[in-house]
Automatic annotation (TrEMBL):
Role summary: Component of the sequence-specific heterotrimeric transcription factor (NF-Y) which specifically recognizes a 5'-CCAAT-3' box motif found in the promoters of its target genes. NF-Y can function as both an activator and a repressor, depending on its interacting cofactors.
Gene3D superfamilies for this protein: Histone, subunit A
Gene Ontology CC terms: CCAAT-binding factor complex
CDD domains: HFD_NFYB
Region (Disordered): 30-70
SUPFAM superfamilies registered for this protein in UniProt: Histone-fold
Protein name as catalogued: Nuclear transcription factor Y subunit beta
GO molecular function, one term: protein heterodimerization activity
Cross-referenced Pfam families: CBFD_NFYB_HMF
PANTHER family: CCAAT-BINDING TRANSCRIPTION FACTOR-RELATED (PTHR11064), NUCLEAR TRANSCRIPTION FACTOR Y SUBUNIT BETA (PTHR11064:SF9)
UniProt biased composition (Acidic residues): 35-45
UniProt keyword list: DNA-binding, Transcription, Transcription regulation
Recorded family membership: Belongs to the NFYB/HAP3 subunit family.
Length: 133
């Protein structure tokens, strides 16, 4: 799976801050589809209607069922690519380690987004943006 915004060159290890600030990774996550995703109309809506927790897939206003794993987590290929940058070239990453980091990173992003959303709601703002304080 190639990302259109990346040249394929390895730029060394990448930290959490760089990962979150990297627009090429964020934009490729938003615009990229996994190889195993089906091309059906149900996969086109990325909105979060109502009071839905994206990681739990529980909509407080109606029972729509749990979200699929591919809708809850960052793509495993993207997570593995970032992990490979942090280990020696000859190093290997176990499948369960990739899956664990995938879940942790997705939970972290969800937490940060939730906190930012709460803050925007308290400040009566509609857009989450970067504010250095």
């Amino acid at each position: 799976m190639e990302n259109s915004g990346e040249s394929g060159e390895d730029s060394g290890s990448i930290g959490t801050t760089a990962f979150l600030a990297s627009s090429s990774i964020a934009s490729s996550y938003i615009s990229m589809q996994s190889d195993d995703m089906e091309d059906d109309p149900e996969n086109t809506d990325d909105s979060n209607p109502g009071n839905c927790d994206p990681l739990q897939g529980v909509n407080m206003s109606s029972s729509s069922g749990p979200l699929r794993e591919q809708d809850r987590f960052l793509p495993i290929a993207n997570v593995a690519k970032i992990m490979k940058r942090a280990i020696p070239e000859a190093g290997k990453i176990a499948k369960d380690a990739r899956e664990c980091v995938q879940e942790c990173v997705s939970e972290f992003i969800s937490f940060i987004t939730s906190e930012a959303s709460d803050r925007c709601h308290m400040e009566k703002r509609k857009t989450i943006n970067v504010q250095c304080r």
